Predict the 3D structure of the following.
Amino acid sequence: MDIIELQEGVYRPEYIYHGEDLGVSYSKEKTIIKLWAPTAQNVEIELYNYYKNDEPQETCDMFKDINGTWTVKLTGNYADKYYLFAINFGDRIERTIDPYAKGLAPNSQMGLIVNLKKTNPKGWEKDEGKSTNSPVNAVIYEVHVRDFSMSARSGLRNRGDYLAFTEQGSVNNQGLSTGLDHLKELGITHVHLLPVFDYASVDEQNRYEYNWGYDPHFYNVPEGSYANKPDSYHRIREFKQMVKTLHDHDIGVIMDVVYNHTYYTKESSFQKTAPGYFYRLINNCYLTNGSGCGNEIATERPMVRKFILDSLKYWVKEYHIDGFRFDLMGLMDKETFFSIEKVLHNINPNLLLYGEPWAAEPPNLEDYQKIYKGIQQDHKIGFFNDRFRDAIKGDTDGFVTGYINGKYETTNDIKRGTVGSIDYSFDIKDFTYKPEETINYVSAHDNLTLWDKINKSVSSASLKDRIKMNHLAQAIVLTSQGVPFIHGGEEFLRTKYGNHNSYNAGDHINQIKWERKTLYYDTFLYYKGLIKLRREHPAFRMNDPHMIKEKMHFLDSVDAAIGFVLKDYANGDEWKEIYVLYNPQHHWSRFWFNKQKKFNIVVNGKAGTDILHSFKSDNIKVPPISAMVLYVD
Ligand code: CA
């Protein structure tokens, strides 16, 4: 375990500051800067005309303010000045940027005072973001900014950049839509972006470097490597243009946020401003490592919790973000978890909030502080549902199979997932109170893609059967109660050539290969059809557990097939009864009814809301490895 310094007195209760003004507050007439550095003996701010200058053009003393803060008021227009703090701890002077920085020089070399008004795109004041009413109405599409557009086959001009999301009319080498047009065609409601705050592992001036970005540096500034130029104005302006364009096309923007560790520890702005305060320690010096990345952010301390809340509020207010995905939320303490929900939904009740209910290693927290599946009940925060995920396809990276690829013992876990993981019955219950608390998915950026997993686990199956397994997996996700989540590119069988942890593997492995849309166009149409079915039919989007118990019933099955009916115009649906049937087996499976009904098939090989075929019968035969959806008027 690494050792860091803990400054005596840094935890004192009189150092808890409640004001909303930490960081830089700019106006044309004056700039007020406030820094929290409770154990400092004195603090100066150095102002630079250019970040490459060796000497500051101006140095100002900051005065000791209340609760461990230091303040300076700069009279005049200080926009576009770079700055560093020189913090004197008696035995040394630390030079650093503040954790609250809103602007940065390339590669975070200095802070920058930004006139944020100059970064707003046209119509920004009227931009209201995406309204969903309930998380179960969302269809989330996870993508990395660079992966989305980096391929030459994307047909996009701003390859690897925020601005790629603003382009319209782009096509792949076969003339099929890509980029934003593709997202609209697919019908998703929200784009979930892998980290887009400033991270440390990529040189922003080197266009060839690649990383997912789970290595936070400055939380309140967009990452510079996705901008046309890495200076603050470009990154902020282009980020906002991305958000604005997506909003204009009725697509929400969710940020993947990583408030569980920082890339640097001793050299971080946290440690340089308040030594020892921001990280979890054992014996006041040893860093704990629940993140697996060398440190754990001490979310349970008041000024850390405040920082996280302030940061989230800032992204909502300044950048119009519609939701957050919390990385390794199992490292966060319970009180912070509940505060986030309360504070953010107070600003906008429609914000989508969800996270991973686990950590890399057990967190250095008391049991009563820990987060685990179940504590979210009735709290409007969702958790990734790993039990459902693994029941559908097997383990994440190995040869273990699941329901779609041959392990039929997982039938009951599939049923648990389809009801939204609520307490449905004695046998069928899991961790949620409401379906909005489960993020249903079969693949994400971590681990093998769904297609690579299928290929690894059932390599001897025919191509046709492997594709059917893929379709069945996503049909289960999109016809289940809960919040569906799709790994971007999965809709045309995304491959990373078997790489299960591609965080720094570069573009060749990671980029979305848009030519595959042509190759696997039927898969694309299938996903699109399932999304359309889900979005047009509220029966798939019940959020009241009582309604689910009343309207959703499982059918008797003689084998590993699963069938359920959503009945009595469930949740105001226009269809009286909707039958959803999954058959993972290599033989046909039959469901019997006690009387004849007239069935209209809408999903069977193809998917959508149009009737593929109608028939009158007292039974339904489901083809091998497939999902069927039928309705009765
Ligand atoms: Ca960076």
